[in-house]
Amino acid sequence: MNGRQVLSKRGSLLSRFDGLKAIFQLWLFLLGGLSVHGEARDMIEITHAGLGNSLTVEVMNLRDGEIQIKLESGDIYTLPTDLLTSESINQARLFLETKATELVNINKFIGQPLFNASGTLWEQPASDTAKRLRWPVESKGASSSSYRKYTRADYSFLGAHPYCATLYGSADGHAELFSLVFANKGDFGSKMGMGEDHFKKIHPDANIPKSLSEAIELDAQVLTKSLSDELGEPKQQYYGEKEDKRKVLRWDLNGHSFILSQRDEEYVSLLIVPISVADAEGKVELVKDSDMKVIIAKNVQRGENGDVLVTNIPMVNQGPKGYCAPATAERAMRYMLVPADMYLLAVAATSAEGGTNTTALMESCKRIVRSKARKIRDLNLEKDLNFKTLKKYIDKGVPILWQMRSLDQYNKIANRRTKERREVTDFVTWAETIKAESKDVVSSLKSIKENHHICMIIGYNEKTNEVAVSDSWGIRYELRWVHIDIARAVTSRGGFVIDF
After folding, report:
1. pLDDT tens per residue, range 110-144
2. N or C terminus of the chain with fewer C-beta within 10 Å?
């Protein structure tokens, strides 16, 4: 967050300041001198308990003996509350309570219980907000969480219908980002999607769009009007990085930025992010290779029975659209600390008839991944699905994106054997049992050329000749085990890794 500094309880400055104005204002306030007043909207005056001078600020937070303030310059600082008069603290508390009430009232025009009286969304547990919105949990890990709702045709948000609504949580469990995707290429014309139905439900009196461009324009108009009527005219700015950079409309509300993106013949999307993220245009700091290696190495778990697993991979539920490739790509990208949105990845590589062009998807992903100093490497798993390849990546914490055929017989074996495996104590006998089974089914699996799919290989056991597989179908399919010969039999086209 730009300009964020922390002042010790002695009132001394511990770190650098961004902006001479911010330095001057705090110097006057902390060390004495002229009072600094202002008449900016949504700001109050706080008074130094010892010196009596005042400072005009926006109060961001108040708890645990500290007050977080924003100056007129936009810089954010944290002060100990014992520096301030009791009247200042009372005013700050009243200020936050008033803002919280305003946020709750905003729910009426949103049409969903997005806000409550506990302050900004970024101060609250993501799980609480998701429960209030009734967005199901999708993934909970050590470093992130997500909650995703594939909506019914009558679900409205700001007067328009989002096909997919997602809340992403941070490592500390707080809400971090909201992503809602409205009219888009993958849904509007797809036989698998809801087509024009949602327009009939949400806009019964409007002319039903006859084309994707009309659908995108209608949703963009509705969202823009809803936000502008309540929050005023938007600002225009750029958001995203490199190839993903686009011109957007932005509305701010009590620490939240609503970011509306419209791409012709592609999609309409709405992000809700902290104001600091909007100010930074959505750019995320790079993580050095050396730091990344340490981070992901901690995710490798080794069992006494020979299991080697990559853990803490976010789950993404591909949902009713069958977006296995975009969902798997998002999982891998977020695991490697590269921001990604499955639905928008899908739109970039999906035809209006449904189905994802994996080559086009990976080209899009490569551009995003490269912007974060990572690489996507192609693998020839039809030839090289062996323990040498698996150990090369799994042992350092890198999951493998595996193109395969998700056949009924394969899934029945994977489900049954994974369940049975939980009770196994004699892994020598287990290895012999699954080896015999694989010999019986490999030829029939190889003969069926359908049900093309992409998922992850996240582990192996060289003693039992097994691979650990993770599908983007929800938590139930987060880990399954199959014999490596069965995995080879259903492999198709190859695979990928996101690496250094």
Report:
1. 999 999 877 789 988 999 999 999 999 998 888 88
2. N
Angle at 457 between CA 130 and CA 483, to 5 degrees: 125
Question: Residue holding tokens 């010999």?
Answer: 439
Q: List domains and CATH numbers for the chain.
A: 5-100 (2.30.30.700), 111-279 (no CATH), 289-321+369-499 (no CATH)
**pLDDT at res. 19:** 44
Q: Which two tokens stand for residue 192?
A: 């698998």
Instruction: Report the pLDDT value the prediction gives residue 102, as an integer from 0 to 100.
Output: 76
User: Would you tell me how many other CB atoms lie within 10 Å of the CB of residue 153?
Assistant: 15
3-state SS string for the chain: CCCCEEECCCCCECCCCCCHHHHHHHHHHHHCCCCECCCCCCCEEEEECCCCCEEEEEEEEEECCEEEEECCCCCEEEEEHHHECHHHHHHHHHHHHHHHHHHHHHHHHHCCCCCCCCCCHHHCEHHHHHHHHCCCEEEECCCCEEEEEECCCCCCECCECCCEEEEEECCCCEEEEEEEEEEEHHHHCCCCCCCCHHHHHHCCCCCCCCCHHHHHHHHHHHHHHHHHHHHCCCEEEEECCHHHCEEEEEEEECCEEEEEEEECCCEEEEEEEEHHHHHCCCCCCCCCHHHHHHHHHCCEEECCCCCEEECCCCCCCCHHHCCHHHHHHHHHHHHCCCCCCHHHHHHHHECCCCCECHHHHHHHHHHHHHCCCCEEEEECHHHHCCHHHHHHHHCCCCCEEEEEECCHHHHHHHHHHHHHHCCCCCHHHHHHHHHHHHHHHHHHHHHCCCCEEEEEEEEEECCCCEEEEECCCCHHHCCEEEEHHHHHHHEEEEEEEEEC
pLDDT attached to residue 419: 95
Residue positions counted in the chain? 500
Residues of the chain falling short of pLDDT 70: 1-41, 74, 189-207, 243, 321, 348-358, 373
264-278 pLDDT, tens digit each: 888 999 999 999 899
